[in-house]
Specification:
This protein is mostly beta strands and 51 residues long. It has no helices and four strands.
Length: 51
């Protein structure tokens, strides 16, 4: 079973395909390769470090 956790993007790195997401005070590195034009403030579902 796949569990995606809703997290908010708090930083997008210059490469545009990775950054930092946060939920409940916990920040994690995340890849946005499947997201078109990720922006700070957007919410994404994160599973295994990928949105």
């Amino acid at each position: 079973m796949c569990i995606g956790i809703p997290m908010q993007i708090v930083e997008v790195y210059e490469d545009g395909i990775s950054g930092v997401v946060e939920a409940g005070g916990t920040k994690k590195h995340c890849f946005f390769m499947l997201i078109d034009n990720p922006k700070v403030g957007d919410y994404v579902l994160v599973h295994a470090g990928n949105a």
